[in-house]
Amino acid sequence: MIKDSLVTLATDRFGELVQFYRQFLGQQPVVYRTAIYAEFQLPGGRLGIFRPKAGSLVAEKERREGEGGNEAGIAVEECQDRTDRDRTTRSYSESCKTQPLKSPVGMALCLEVQDLNAAIAHLRGLGYPTPNEIRTASHGRETDVYDPDGNWLILHETPVSRGSAIL
Fold first, then answer.
1. Which of 100, 105, 107 is nearest to 133 (CA)?
2. Which end of the chain is more exposed for a tag (fewer CB within 10 A), N or C?
3. 74-95 confidence digits (pLDDT tens)
């Protein structure tokens, strides 16, 4: 039935988000259309980043959130600059980088890494510290981080005895 999978992130900060994933994943997009679409190949799938066209449902949702709406359950009042349209810095404010959202909801991009401590150090080197402590889950160790648009990423390390690592 399902032949392939692709996870896409819609953003009005296309260049910044593509640059973050270039640095974080250590690769160039396999498909790149300037200021419109980029696609990264991941083990087991693909990650696309696109700028929604004006009038699309995504653009309308972002407009409403920018007016104070909170359909996704995101703590808008804590990091209002996530919805500001005139962002001039490389990423969202330092407080938003280091403070987790109160109750993440919706979809999370889960990435299995070979070495969780090394992945955390890599993100810190890029200026994106993980906001939460490492925790132990049934599948191994994990932590959360948010990309420049506030998308929830869960990085996890599976014990060697349970399977192979991806990143």
1. 100
2. N
3. 333 333 333 332 333 333 434 4
